[in-house]
Amino acid sequence: MLINGESGTGKELVAHALHRHSPRAKAPFIALNMAAIPKDLIESELFGHEKGAFTGANTIRQGRFEQADGGTLFLDEIGDMPLDVQTRLLRVLADGQFYRVGGYAPVKVDVRIIAATHQNLEQRVQEGKFREDLFHRLNVIRVHLPPLRERREDIPRLARPSRDFLQVAARELGVEAKLLHPETEAALTRLAWPGNVRQLENTCRWLTVMAAGQEVLIQDLPGELFESNVPESTSHMQPDSWATLLAQWADRALRSGHQNLLSEAQPELERTLLTTALRHTQGHKQEAARLLGWGRNTLTRKLKELGME
C-alpha cells in the first residue's frame, strides 16, 4: 500500500488506523522515517545486524522488519530510500525473508508494508531515483491524502477534545482537556494550515498549555498561527493592493472576534468608491453614478443610506 500527500497531512495517522482495523491489530505497528536516518545506517535499521558486522556492533540487533513480524511496518518518506536498499526491500517483499547486515542465515518474517511519501514517485522513477518494479509493488493500493485546507470539515473533528488532538494533549500533560468556543472553532476552520494536520496537532498542544481558561477563545490563539496561514486565494496579491489590505483588515477583525464582516465592510467600501467617483467628476452625481455602474435612483438611495446627502 502507498499513501501520498503533502507533509503533515497525517499519513502516519492513516497508516496506524489501517493497522488498528486490520487482522494484524494485535501485532506490532513499527514506523520508520527514511528521511530521518543517515543513509549508511538505513540497512541496519531495517534489517538489523550481527555481532561484529561493523565497528560498534557489539551485539546482535533486531531490525525493524523483525520487530514488526506479524504486524505492520510503516515506511515514511519512501522516496528518500537509497536505490541499493530499495533492491533489498523488493527482495523481502518477494521472498518474505532477508539477511541481517553481516549475517548468513535468512530471517523469515510476515510483515505488511505501508509506504508513504510527499514526493511524486512516478517522476522519481523516470529520473532513475526510484525502482520501477518496487513502485508497482507498493502501488497496488494507493491512498491520496488531500491537504487540510481542502478538507476543512475535518478540522473541528480533529481538534475537539472528545475526538482527538486536545484530548491527547491533555492526557499527555495530565490535565483536563480544553474546550473550543464555537467562534474559535470557526476561526480554525477558516485558516489555510500550510503545515496540515501536524500543525493543527501542535497548535492543540500549545493551547492546552497556554490558553488562560478552560474554554479556548479566539484571543487565545497564537498570533503566528494567523501569520503563517495566509489563504491561498490572497497569496498572489501585491503587498499594497486593495485586496491585500482588505484581507489584512478581515484577518484582524476575525482575530478580534468580530462577526458579520460583510455588513460592516460593505458600507465603507461603497462610501469610499462613491466619494472617489464624486471627486473624479467634480461632484457631478449622474456621471459618478455611471462610473460606478449605478442608476440615478440607486445613487440617490445610496447617498441617503450612507449619510452623504
Automatic annotation (TrEMBL):
Q: Which InterPro entries match?
A: AAA+_ATPase, AAA_lid_NorR, Homeodomain-like_sf, HTH_Fis, P-loop_NTPase, Sigma_54_int, Sigma_54_int_dom_ATP-bd_1, Sigma_54_int_dom_ATP-bd_2
UniProt-listed GO biological process terms: phosphorelay signal transduction system; regulation of DNA-templated transcription
Q: Which GO terms describe its molecular function?
A: ATP binding; sequence-specific DNA binding
Keywords assigned? Activator, ATP-binding, Cytoplasm, DNA-binding, Nucleotide-binding, Phosphoprotein, Repressor, Transcription, Transcription regulation, Two-component regulatory system
Keyword ATP-binding in record: yes
Transmembrane parts of this sequence = none
Gene Ontology CC: cytoplasm
Question: What is this protein identified as?
Answer: Sigma-54 factor interaction domain-containing protein
The species is Escherichia coli
